[in-house]
Specification:
The chain has 323 residues and is of the alpha/beta class. It has 14 helices and 13 strands. The longest helix has 18 residues. The protein is globular.
């Protein structure tokens, strides 16, 4: 658990980045922090690993004050994924991932096994990619390696500073889906800074909306769509987005059955074509199967996966934009 207790940050030029922030970030959840430029979201995140120090107040990790921790030891115990990926270009993928384990004194066989495990975890074949250099990978692949590097020492906390914002839209949406699947497996405490409201709503368990160094609202994505605590929160999310997401969650798979895959080999869950899109999302998130067999009158009419749901979502957005 990460807890901020009345934290204020004033920079030397007089800018007040945070103003008496008190908030608890839940354990084993992905918490997104979002708000307008200059609202203090990145400063808030960077205080967790002491990249920024509070002017007053205190931050606690598992009830131990961060100010009492050695900053080098603290940073090695926390994974960090940045916007520009930050892979070292003259080092192989394996060497990039192994940086922190080597600093921690792991033996070579343990590091090798961990590199293999992490590359497979982010859907990169270790035999293919471990000896390559960053310039040989696409932006999306490099960011997957960045996530692997952050996980290398098996930290309890991972900080992610707008990690997907530099990627093209397709890679970005694919990695959002992969991050949710990954979090289901690893169950880390992830703090994710973003400037994209749709991204926050897609990936987060909890969302913190900030304004002028203070927290306007903290809630789950569903709670934010159903109830906005202030006019600022309502305007920041956007009335069109709120209406669209409410409508999309109620649409049934029957309306999107032309997008269903025709074949699937492997395990699957079953659902009626009258299940709502939101129920399908929840079923996929909570089930180890990679597909849902969609049935009408006890006959399977197609198979649904994350990619199909994404296509349905994009089709729905396009329909809204064309009205």
């Amino acid at each position: 658990m990460i807890r901020f207790d009345n934290v204020t940050k004033v920079f030397p030029d007089g800018t007040k980045a945070l103003n008496g922030v008190t908030v608890t970030i839940p354990t084993h959840k992905l918490t997104a922090i979002i708000g307008p430029s200059g609202c203090g979201k990145t400063t808030l995140m960077r205080m967790i690993n002491r990249l920024e120090l509070p002017t007053s107040g205190e931050i606690f990790i598992d009830e131990q004050a961060v100010s009492e921790r050695d900053e080098v030891e603290l940073r090695r115990s926390i994974g960090y994924v940045i916007q520009r990926i930050g892979l070292i270009p003259h080092m192989t993928i394996e060497e990039n991932i192994a940086i922190v384990p080597e600093m921690l004194g792991w033996d070579e066989s343990r590091i090798t096994a961990r590199v293999d495990e992490l590359l497979e975890l982010v859907d990169l074949d270790s035999k293919t990619y471990r000896s390559r250099y960053p310039f040989e990978l696409s932006g999306g692949q490099q960011q997957r390696v960045g996530v692997s590097r952050a996980l290398a020492s098996d930290p309890n906390i991972i900080l992610m500073d707008e990690p997907f914002s530099a990627l093209d839209p397709i890679s970005r949406e694919q990695l959002q889906v992969e991050l949710r699947k990954l979090q289901k497996k690893i169950k880390k405490t992830i703090v994710f800074v973003t400037h994209d409201m749709d991204e926050a709503l897609e990936i987060a368990d909890e969302i913190i909306i900030m304004r002028e160094g203070q927290i306007e609202q903290m809630a789950t994505p569903d709670e934010l769509i159903e109830h906005q605590a202030t006019d600022f929160v309502r305007d920041f999310i956007g009335q069109d987005r709120i209406a669209r997401r409410r409508d999309f969650a109620q649409r049934t798979l029957e309306e999107f059955d032309e997008l269903l895959d025709e074949t699937w080999v492997g395990d699957y869950a079953e659902a009626s074509s009258m299940i709502t899109v939101q129920e399908a999302i929840d079923l996929l998130a909570d089930n180890s199967n990679k597909r849902i067999a969609v049935k009408r009158n006890d006959l399977i009419i197609g198979y649904l996966g994350h990619h199909t749901l994404l296509k349905a979502a994009m089709k729905d957005r396009e329909g809204e934009l064309s009205v």
